[in-house]
Specification:
- This protein is α+β, with helices and mostly antiparallel strands and 305 residues long.
- The chain has two domains: 117 residues, D-amino Acid Aminotransferase, Chain A, domain 1, CATH 3.30.470; 159 residues, D-amino Acid Aminotransferase, Chain A, domain 2, CATH 3.20.10.10.
- The chain contains eight helices and 17 strands.
- It binds pyridoxal-5'-phosphate (PLP).
- The site of pyridoxal-5'-phosphate has 14 residues, from helix 6 and strand 14.
- Pyridoxal-5'-phosphate (PLP) binds next to helix 6 and strand 14.
């Protein structure tokens, strides 16, 4: 990790090395935190953050879903996010706000436990590697099922849920794949280990509904809008493993991942084993939008200063 100088912790910026918490923090023991993953880019109009209000709203919604009362309002968190980029002199960055329970009473009931918030920003390149955008990624169907929405809240980005994602990612990489696709209840396709998934068949776009356990991704929402602008209809529908392998095109979406073609599953090529044309068009539009090169989508960009 390429460290920056400062991290915002509980209302003020401190040196990266001083942004520490007790080993008795509730979240460290029980996974009871929530977080966001946001990107700032050196865009055509300056250093900008993509869909910042959506990320802040999801952070607050996630916190509420897991009973964390954030002791700051949205305006303060928004400023902390923007300042974490600006004060670290970053022209592009990955930004990680984290809301967590600190040290208080031990036990599952988070009683008399303080809620802490940190915001870190640092330089982080392509999540699935520099070649992923052009060449696509090779994935497996994970042996690990996505946690059932009956057991957790998929619309919330909860720390503990990522133990499930980590199992899938580690297993995939150990087997030589770039990432994994996870199936949910009844073996319907849910998403990647840290990405949403889209399928294209006969010129139509499909994506699993969030009821499968997939996160309500902000890139997912953006891609549905891009597809519509390209004259493509998107249907949120259950997809099974057979339909997945029979797709014309598949691609992952996420803030860290961006838009990346999935070119094989379990070593079986999807179509010709290359990122598809529609995937390429959507990826190009997405990159134009996040880089401030599309006038129609400038309202999604917030200048950090
Ligand atoms: C499990 C999971 N699904 C999907 C996504 C994509 O969401 P977004 O587009 O909001 O980054 C992420 C990344 O945050 C994720 O961790």
């Amino acid at each position: 990790m390429e460290k920056s100088n400062l991290i915002w912790l509980n209302g003020e910026f401190v040196n990266w090395e001083d942004a520490n918490v007790s080993v008795m923090s509730h979240t460290l023991h029980y996974g009871t935190g929530v977080f966001e993953g946001i990107r700032a880019r050196d865009s055509k109009i300056g250093t900008t953050i993509f869909r910042l209000p959506d990320h802040v709203n999801r952070l607050f919604d996630s916190a509420e879903a897991y009973n964390l009362k954030i002791p700051y309002d949205k305006e303060i968190i928004t400023s902390a996010i923007k300042d974490s980029v600006h004060l670290n002199n970053l022209s592009s960055a990955y930004i990680r706000p984290l809301v967590f329970f600190g040290e208080g009473e031990m036990g599952l009931l988070p009683k008399s436990v303080p809620v802490y918030v940190s915001v870190a920003a640092w330089n982080w390149g392509a999540y699935l590697g520099d070649d992923a955008g052009n060449q696509g990624v090779r994935v497996c169907i994970s042996k690990w099922k996505r946690i059932s929405p009956q057991s957790f809240k998929p619309t919330a980005k909860g720390v503990g849920g990522y133990m499930n994602s980590t199992l899938a990612k580690v297993d995939a990489v150990e087997k030589g794949y770039d990432d994994a696709i996870m199936l949910g209840d009844n073996d319907v396709v849910a998403e990647g280990s840290g990405q949403n998934l889209f399928l294209i068949k006969n010129g139509k776009v499909y994506t699993p509904p969030i009821e499968t356990g997939a996160l309500g991704g902000i890139t997912r929402k953006t891609v549905i809008e891009i597809a519509s602008n390209l004259g493509l209809e998107t249907e949120e529908t259950n997809i099974n493993e057979e339909q997945l392998k029979d797709a014309d095109e598949l691609f992952f979406t996420g803030t860290a991942t961006e838009v990346v073609g999935v070119v094989s599953i379990d070593n079986q090529d999807i179509a010709n084993g290359k990122p598809g044309e529609i995937t390429g068009n959507i990826r190009q539009k997405y990159l134009e939008i996040v880089n401030g090169e599309n006038e129609d989508f400038l309202h999604y960009l917030t200048l950090v200063k």
